Amino acid sequence: MAEFTHLDAKGTPAMVDVGAKPVTKRIARARAVVILPDQVLELLQAGDIQTRKGAVFQTAILAGIMAAKRTGELIPLCHPLGLDNCQVDIRINDDNEVLIDCTASNTGKTGVEMEALTGASIAALTVYDMCKALSHHIVIREIRLLEKRGGKKDFISDDAQNS
User: Fold this and answer.
1) Taking a C-beta distance cutoff of 8 angstroms, is the pair 160, 90 a contact?
2) 27-149 — its CATH code?
3) What digits encode the pLDDT tens for the residues 59-75?
4) Of the candidates 49, 70, 96, 139, which lies 20 to 30 Å from 9 by C-alpha distance?
5) Among 129, 154, 158, 159, which one carries the catalytic annotation?
């Protein structure tokens, strides 16, 4: 049976000791899905909306990368990691959903799933923040891990292969 890794034998929160783990190449990809009202979506499909804060998608990309780099400061018990790379891709799919993919990688003793998830999350929140003046009917529908490689075991979600 699986156990929670962030609890010690007494049930007290504890950082996972990765000291004895081997250094390997780690990569993770996470996705956030944002549903925008038609009037906002139409503006984005015509070109990235320019606001006083900057272009919506470009600003969200920067925010996602910045957040992924600071995951260890934001989420208790996450190890502070130096990322080798972080990419945020934002596109509108055929179902008129905004797909935000964050891919993080490093060479280290622990994975980068939380960095990818944090990057996708903050990029989605940035899209919300920058578009809320046009409508508050924005929904961040899901944030999830699509795949991870490196470490003890790899993971790939069923629909990650199709995206």
Assistant:
1) no
2) 3.30.70.640
3) 999 999 999 999 999 99
4) 70
5) 129
